[in-house]
Amino acid sequence: MKTKTAMITIAGRPNVGKSTLTNYLVGEKIAIVSNKPQTTRNRICGIVTRENTQFVFVDTPGYHRARTKLGDYMVNVAQESIADVDLTILVVEPIASVGPQEEGLLAKIQSSRSPAVLAINKIDTVEKDALLEVIQVYSQKADFDAIVPISAKTGDGVDDLLKVCEKYAVEGPFLFPEDITTDQPERQVMAEIIREKLLWCLDREVPHGTAVEINRFSERDNGIIDIDATIYCEKASHKGIIIGKGGEMLKKISSMARSDCERFMGTKVYLTTWVKVKENWRDSDFLVRNFGYSE
Q1: Which of 9, 130, 203, 258 is the most buried (most CB within 10 A)?
Q2: Cβ of 182: how many Cβ atoms within 10 Å?
Q3: 101-75-212 Cα angle (round to 5)
Q4: CA-based Rg of the chain, rounded to a whole angstrom?
């Protein structure tokens, strides 16, 4: 049987639903999601193998105006992920205007000469008649190979999007084993799950200034996994907020994270967490690299 593969970048501004779309396509949670911007920091591959075709979807950080060294890294990842792929899916919200982030991404897509498909997400939030104006506005801005209205939340239109993607698959061997859904090491997935709970439970700037490092990841003979994790934040006052009164907030974050870790690993997980301060780490080239945010 001849096999085909397609490398497909999913790009867009923060909070348009790129990670939700990636998770829906893959059929399980491999990318963290929250209602806060800049949730995704790294390039994450979601792998979908259907019969003789393997799709490798590259979920990217939201394209935004960078204000820190970490932000610079995230923008570079978003831009570089558009080069040398078989297709770019530009995900936008159902709003009939093209913002500066979309303008920047469209310029990058056009300079890369990569085929592009527009996915208008969150169609479950608007009347269908409103989509016509959105389609018209974006059609005037760029020559998309296809425009597909979708809801990454409900799955509406996602199968249609996948059928469009199949046209860009090229003959060749699979890039990954058929039974895996992501290229991320398990340690990285565990760290991201913990960071997601920080985003869910904490307000304002506090969760954006956090990074998670897995200090120990070991499996016992009976299959139980022990994880020791350190949560880094930028200020002593933030450390107090993360720990909470009597340690209650940290317990809540750890409990939520442990449940997701167990779901992903398919086994019992013992999770131990600590909180440490690394002042202004997002503006330190060394610490940004040290926490895994480097090319």
Answers
A1: 9
A2: 22
A3: 125
A4: 20
